[in-house]
Specification:
By secondary structure, the protein is mainly α. The longest helix has 25 residues, at 80-104. The chain has one domain. The protein has twelve helices and no strands. The two termini are 20 Å apart.
Protein backbone atom coordinates (compact mmCIF):
# COMPACT_ATOMS: atom_id res chain seq x y z
CA UNK A 1 0.00 0.00 0.00
CA UNK A 2 1.47 3.35 -1.05
CA UNK A 3 1.81 6.05 1.58
CA UNK A 4 -0.39 8.43 -0.42
CA UNK A 5 -3.16 5.82 -0.50
CA UNK A 6 -2.85 5.19 3.25
CA UNK A 7 -3.10 8.92 3.96
CA UNK A 8 -6.29 9.18 1.90
CA UNK A 9 -7.83 6.11 3.51
CA UNK A 10 -7.01 7.38 6.99
CA UNK A 11 -8.27 10.97 6.46
CA UNK A 12 -5.19 11.94 8.44
CA UNK A 13 -5.90 15.65 8.00
CA UNK A 14 -8.47 15.36 10.81
CA UNK A 15 -6.06 13.75 13.30
CA UNK A 16 -5.31 17.02 15.15
CA UNK A 17 -8.96 17.10 16.28
CA UNK A 18 -8.48 13.65 17.83
CA UNK A 19 -5.41 14.93 19.67
CA UNK A 20 -7.37 17.83 21.14
CA UNK A 21 -10.04 15.37 22.30
CA UNK A 22 -7.27 13.50 24.12
CA UNK A 23 -5.99 16.75 25.66
CA UNK A 24 -9.49 17.51 26.90
CA UNK A 25 -10.20 14.08 28.36
CA UNK A 26 -6.86 14.01 30.20
CA UNK A 27 -7.15 17.58 31.51
CA UNK A 28 -10.73 17.20 32.72
CA UNK A 29 -9.75 14.01 34.53
CA UNK A 30 -7.21 16.02 36.52
CA UNK A 31 -3.92 14.93 34.94
CA UNK A 32 -1.08 17.32 34.15
CA UNK A 33 -0.15 18.23 30.60
CA UNK A 34 3.26 16.62 31.21
CA UNK A 35 1.76 13.23 32.17
CA UNK A 36 3.84 10.48 30.55
CA UNK A 37 0.68 8.67 29.44
CA UNK A 38 -0.34 11.54 27.17
CA UNK A 39 2.02 10.45 24.38
CA UNK A 40 0.73 6.88 24.60
CA UNK A 41 -2.85 8.09 24.41
CA UNK A 42 -2.13 10.29 21.40
CA UNK A 43 -0.68 7.28 19.61
CA UNK A 44 -3.47 4.95 20.68
CA UNK A 45 -6.39 7.21 19.77
CA UNK A 46 -4.71 8.12 16.48
CA UNK A 47 -4.64 4.40 15.65
CA UNK A 48 -8.33 4.11 16.55
CA UNK A 49 -9.20 7.03 14.26
CA UNK A 50 -7.10 6.00 11.26
CA UNK A 51 -8.14 2.36 11.68
CA UNK A 52 -11.77 3.45 11.76
CA UNK A 53 -11.34 5.45 8.59
CA UNK A 54 -9.74 2.45 6.89
CA UNK A 55 -12.72 0.33 7.87
CA UNK A 56 -15.07 3.00 6.55
CA UNK A 57 -13.66 2.52 3.06
CA UNK A 58 -13.53 -1.26 3.46
CA UNK A 59 -17.18 -1.58 4.46
CA UNK A 60 -18.21 0.97 1.81
CA UNK A 61 -16.21 -0.57 -1.04
CA UNK A 62 -19.28 -1.98 -2.84
CA UNK A 63 -21.13 1.33 -2.54
CA UNK A 64 -18.07 3.31 -3.64
CA UNK A 65 -17.69 1.10 -6.72
CA UNK A 66 -20.87 2.64 -8.06
CA UNK A 67 -20.85 6.16 -6.62
CA UNK A 68 -17.19 6.98 -5.93
CA UNK A 69 -15.06 4.81 -8.22
CA UNK A 70 -12.06 7.06 -7.64
CA UNK A 71 -11.70 5.85 -4.03
CA UNK A 72 -8.63 3.62 -3.42
CA UNK A 73 -10.39 0.24 -3.23
CA UNK A 74 -12.69 0.43 -6.30
CA UNK A 75 -9.93 2.08 -8.33
CA UNK A 76 -7.66 -0.89 -7.67
CA UNK A 77 -5.00 0.94 -5.67
CA UNK A 78 -5.45 -1.45 -2.74
CA UNK A 79 -7.58 -4.50 -2.00
CA UNK A 80 -10.46 -4.56 0.44
CA UNK A 81 -8.78 -7.43 2.32
CA UNK A 82 -5.68 -5.33 2.89
CA UNK A 83 -7.73 -2.42 4.18
CA UNK A 84 -9.79 -4.64 6.50
CA UNK A 85 -6.61 -6.20 7.91
CA UNK A 86 -4.93 -2.84 8.43
CA UNK A 87 -8.04 -1.27 9.95
CA UNK A 88 -8.74 -4.01 12.49
CA UNK A 89 -5.02 -4.32 13.17
CA UNK A 90 -4.85 -0.65 14.16
CA UNK A 91 -7.82 -1.05 16.51
CA UNK A 92 -6.11 -3.98 18.22
CA UNK A 93 -2.85 -2.03 18.47
CA UNK A 94 -4.75 0.91 19.94
CA UNK A 95 -6.22 -1.31 22.67
CA UNK A 96 -2.74 -2.69 23.35
CA UNK A 97 -1.38 0.80 23.95
CA UNK A 98 -4.25 1.47 26.35
CA UNK A 99 -3.25 -1.62 28.32
CA UNK A 100 0.25 -0.17 28.58
CA UNK A 101 -1.17 3.13 29.82
CA UNK A 102 -3.40 1.38 32.36
CA UNK A 103 -0.90 -1.09 33.76
CA UNK A 104 2.45 0.56 33.08
CA UNK A 105 2.15 3.83 34.98
CA UNK A 106 1.10 4.76 38.50
CA UNK A 107 -1.41 5.47 39.77
CA UNK A 108 -2.54 2.38 37.87
CA UNK A 109 -5.93 2.62 36.18
CA UNK A 110 -5.58 -1.01 35.03
CA UNK A 111 -8.50 -2.38 33.00
CA UNK A 112 -10.50 0.85 32.81
CA UNK A 113 -8.94 2.38 29.67
CA UNK A 114 -8.82 -1.07 28.04
CA UNK A 115 -12.54 -1.64 28.56
CA UNK A 116 -13.34 1.87 27.33
CA UNK A 117 -11.10 1.25 24.31
CA UNK A 118 -12.91 -1.99 23.48
CA UNK A 119 -16.21 -0.09 23.66
CA UNK A 120 -14.76 2.48 21.26
CA UNK A 121 -13.59 -0.24 18.86
CA UNK A 122 -17.08 -1.80 18.89
CA UNK A 123 -18.72 1.58 18.25
CA UNK A 124 -16.33 2.32 15.38
CA UNK A 125 -16.96 -1.08 13.79
CA UNK A 126 -20.73 -0.82 14.19
CA UNK A 127 -20.79 2.66 12.66
CA UNK A 128 -18.79 1.58 9.62
CA UNK A 129 -20.84 -1.59 9.18
CA UNK A 130 -24.25 0.06 9.46
CA UNK A 131 -24.13 3.77 8.69
CA UNK A 132 -25.63 3.78 5.21
CA UNK A 133 -29.37 4.51 5.34
CA UNK A 134 -29.22 4.49 9.14
CA UNK A 135 -31.01 7.59 10.49
CA UNK A 136 -29.15 7.22 13.80
CA UNK A 137 -25.68 7.05 12.23
CA UNK A 138 -24.79 10.62 13.30
CA UNK A 139 -25.58 9.63 16.88
CA UNK A 140 -23.32 6.57 16.62
CA UNK A 141 -20.54 8.67 15.10
CA UNK A 142 -20.92 11.17 17.92
CA UNK A 143 -20.66 8.36 20.47
CA UNK A 144 -17.34 7.37 18.91
CA UNK A 145 -15.97 10.86 19.57
CA UNK A 146 -17.54 10.96 23.02
CA UNK A 147 -15.69 7.77 23.87
CA UNK A 148 -12.36 9.38 22.99
CA UNK A 149 -12.87 11.70 25.97
CA UNK A 150 -13.82 8.74 28.16
CA UNK A 151 -10.90 6.56 27.06
CA UNK A 152 -8.36 9.33 27.62
CA UNK A 153 -9.83 10.20 31.01
CA UNK A 154 -9.91 6.60 32.24
CA UNK A 155 -6.25 6.19 31.30
CA UNK A 156 -5.29 8.74 33.97
CA UNK A 157 -8.08 8.45 36.58
CA UNK A 158 -9.88 5.57 38.26
CA UNK A 159 -13.01 7.63 38.92
CA UNK A 160 -14.04 10.30 36.42
CA UNK A 161 -15.21 13.70 37.61
CA UNK A 162 -18.57 14.99 36.45
CA UNK A 163 -17.06 17.54 34.04
CA UNK A 164 -15.74 14.73 31.81
CA UNK A 165 -19.25 13.43 31.17
CA UNK A 166 -20.72 16.91 30.75
CA UNK A 167 -18.08 17.84 28.17
CA UNK A 168 -18.61 14.51 26.40
CA UNK A 169 -22.34 15.20 26.05
CA UNK A 170 -21.58 18.71 24.75
CA UNK A 171 -19.27 17.24 22.11
CA UNK A 172 -21.93 14.68 21.20
CA UNK A 173 -24.47 17.48 20.64
CA UNK A 174 -22.02 19.33 18.40
CA UNK A 175 -21.42 16.27 16.24
CA UNK A 176 -25.12 15.45 15.97
CA UNK A 177 -25.88 19.05 15.04
CA UNK A 178 -23.19 19.36 12.40
CA UNK A 179 -24.00 16.01 10.79
CA UNK A 180 -27.75 16.50 10.58
CA UNK A 181 -27.31 20.13 9.47
CA UNK A 182 -25.22 18.96 6.54
CA UNK A 183 -27.97 16.51 5.57
CA UNK A 184 -30.66 19.22 5.32
CA UNK A 185 -31.37 20.52 1.86
CA UNK A 186 -32.57 23.95 2.99
CA UNK A 187 -31.56 25.50 6.30
CA UNK A 188 -33.92 28.42 5.69
CA UNK A 189 -37.01 26.27 6.28
CA UNK A 190 -38.39 25.92 9.80
CA UNK A 191 -38.70 22.15 9.56
CA UNK A 192 -35.03 21.81 8.63
CA UNK A 193 -33.41 23.93 11.33
CA UNK A 194 -33.94 21.55 14.27
CA UNK A 195 -30.26 20.40 14.15
CA UNK A 196 -29.30 23.95 15.13
CA UNK A 197 -30.75 23.25 18.59
CA UNK A 198 -27.97 20.69 19.10
CA UNK A 199 -25.34 23.20 17.95
CA UNK A 200 -26.70 25.68 20.50
CA UNK A 201 -25.71 23.34 23.34
CA UNK A 202 -21.92 23.81 22.99
CA UNK A 203 -22.43 27.56 22.55
CA UNK A 204 -24.48 27.75 25.76
CA UNK A 205 -21.91 25.62 27.58
CA UNK A 206 -19.12 27.85 26.30
CA UNK A 207 -20.93 30.96 27.55
CA UNK A 208 -21.32 29.37 30.97
CA UNK A 209 -17.60 28.53 31.03
CA UNK A 210 -16.64 32.05 29.91
CA UNK A 211 -18.70 33.55 32.73
CA UNK A 212 -16.79 31.43 35.22
CA UNK A 213 -13.39 31.67 33.51
CA UNK A 214 -12.72 34.71 31.31
CA UNK A 215 -9.90 32.87 29.49
CA UNK A 216 -12.58 30.90 27.65
CA UNK A 217 -14.04 34.02 26.01
CA UNK A 218 -11.59 34.31 23.10
CA UNK A 219 -11.76 30.65 22.00
CA UNK A 220 -15.55 30.84 22.43
CA UNK A 221 -15.75 33.78 20.02
CA UNK A 222 -13.56 31.88 17.54
CA UNK A 223 -15.74 28.80 17.88
CA UNK A 224 -19.03 30.66 17.43
CA UNK A 225 -17.71 32.67 14.47
CA UNK A 226 -16.38 29.56 12.75
CA UNK A 227 -19.60 27.62 13.32
CA UNK A 228 -21.68 30.46 11.87
CA UNK A 229 -19.40 30.56 8.83
CA UNK A 230 -19.90 26.82 8.24
CA UNK A 231 -23.67 27.14 8.65
CA UNK A 232 -23.66 30.00 6.15
CA UNK A 233 -21.97 27.68 3.66
CA UNK A 234 -24.63 25.04 4.30
CA UNK A 235 -27.41 27.58 3.78
CA UNK A 236 -25.90 29.00 0.59
CA UNK A 237 -25.08 25.57 -0.87
CA UNK A 238 -23.17 26.75 -3.89
CA UNK A 239 -21.01 24.18 -5.66
CA UNK A 240 -18.58 22.68 -3.15
CA UNK A 241 -20.13 24.44 -0.15
CA UNK A 242 -21.46 21.34 1.60
CA UNK A 243 -18.18 19.36 1.73
CA UNK A 244 -16.36 22.59 2.63
CA UNK A 245 -18.80 23.19 5.47
CA UNK A 246 -18.48 19.62 6.73
CA UNK A 247 -14.67 19.67 6.91
CA UNK A 248 -14.87 23.14 8.48
CA UNK A 249 -17.16 21.84 11.21
CA UNK A 250 -14.86 18.87 11.76
CA UNK A 251 -11.96 21.30 12.26
CA UNK A 252 -14.22 23.21 14.66
CA UNK A 253 -14.01 20.25 17.07
CA UNK A 254 -10.56 21.55 18.02
CA UNK A 255 -12.00 25.00 18.76
CA UNK A 256 -14.69 23.48 20.97
CA UNK A 257 -11.97 21.61 22.83
CA UNK A 258 -10.08 24.89 23.22
CA UNK A 259 -13.15 26.48 24.82
CA UNK A 260 -13.55 23.58 27.24
CA UNK A 261 -9.85 23.48 28.12
CA UNK A 262 -9.65 27.23 28.70
CA UNK A 263 -12.83 27.12 30.77
CA UNK A 264 -11.33 24.47 33.03
CA UNK A 265 -8.02 26.21 33.68
CA UNK A 266 -5.78 24.56 31.08
CA UNK A 267 -4.61 27.58 29.01
CA UNK A 268 -1.55 25.83 27.52
CA UNK A 269 -3.60 22.95 26.14
CA UNK A 270 -6.29 25.41 25.03
CA UNK A 271 -3.68 27.26 22.99
CA UNK A 272 -2.44 23.99 21.50
CA UNK A 273 -6.03 23.18 20.51
CA UNK A 274 -6.22 26.43 18.52
CA UNK A 275 -2.95 25.48 16.82
CA UNK A 276 -4.47 22.06 16.07
CA UNK A 277 -7.47 23.79 14.47
CA UNK A 278 -5.18 25.74 12.12
CA UNK A 279 -3.17 22.58 11.43
CA UNK A 280 -6.32 20.67 10.54
CA UNK A 281 -7.39 23.31 8.04
CA UNK A 282 -3.91 23.28 6.50
CA UNK A 283 -3.78 19.49 6.22
CA UNK A 284 -7.27 19.38 4.71
CA UNK A 285 -5.88 21.25 1.71
CA UNK A 286 -3.57 18.29 1.02
CA UNK A 287 -5.59 15.30 2.21
CA UNK A 288 -9.37 15.29 2.03
CA UNK A 289 -11.06 15.26 5.43
CA UNK A 290 -14.09 13.28 4.18
Amino acid sequence: MKLSVALRLGRVSNLPTVWTNVFTGVALAGAAAADARLAILLGSLSLFYVGGMFLNDAFDSAFDAGSRPERPIPSGQVSAAQVYAAGFGMLVAGVGLLAWAGYGFGPFTQWRPVLAGIALAIAITFYNWHHKDNPLSPLVMGVCRLLVYIVAAYAVARVLPRQVFIAAIVLLCYLIGLTYSAKQEHLDRLGAVWPLAFLAVPVAYGIWLAIRQSAALLPLLLFVGWTLYALWLLRRRAKGDVPRAVVSLIAGIALLDSVILAGHGAPLLAGLAVVAFVLTLSLQRWVSGT
